[in-house]
Amino acid sequence: MAYPTVSAPYGFKPINRIDGMPYAGATRLIPIASSYNTAIFNGDLVQVVTGGTCEKFTGTTTGGTVGVFIGVQYINSLSQFTPAQYYPGTSVTSAVAIVVDDPMAAFKVVSTDGSSVVAAAARAVVGSNLSVIQGTGNTTTGDSGQSILGSSTATTAALPIRVIDVVTETKTATDSFVELVVKLNTHQYNNTTGV
Known about the structure:
The protein is mainly beta. 0% of the residues lie in helices and 36% in strands.
């Protein structure tokens, strides 16, 4: 049986909850500061910063995240209301991020090497904590370029991602998985310190 090919990262895609419940599509609207000029793509990890606004998570091995960005709504330079798959970072006002912020959400993500090239991981990665590879978002599709570094397995509590399963539908060999099921290990809602 031929499996679908995964040729590049696409960010984090919500698939269900870690308790086995289906993902029902619940999201939260979090404002983006009018001065924020970094693009945020569908599937990017995001965080709440001082002031209560949403920004792209740019960390790799440490830092808290509030969830995954799946879209935005804003007023464009022509004063038109615009729903979009990614936040362009310029020439917009009144931007609001649409974020999957459930601390129990599970996400599908691509395993890559340090250069964002797809690199399979063995099933032994399940239970490990991993670092994030930032990659480059795609302005044509609106998809994120974020992935996880499959070779960065560790028990370090500060690593932002925890692997909870593998995706068998896209395995490339008996013990070679290019997509993993993960949860946010350092979710901001579980951080008792706050921002």
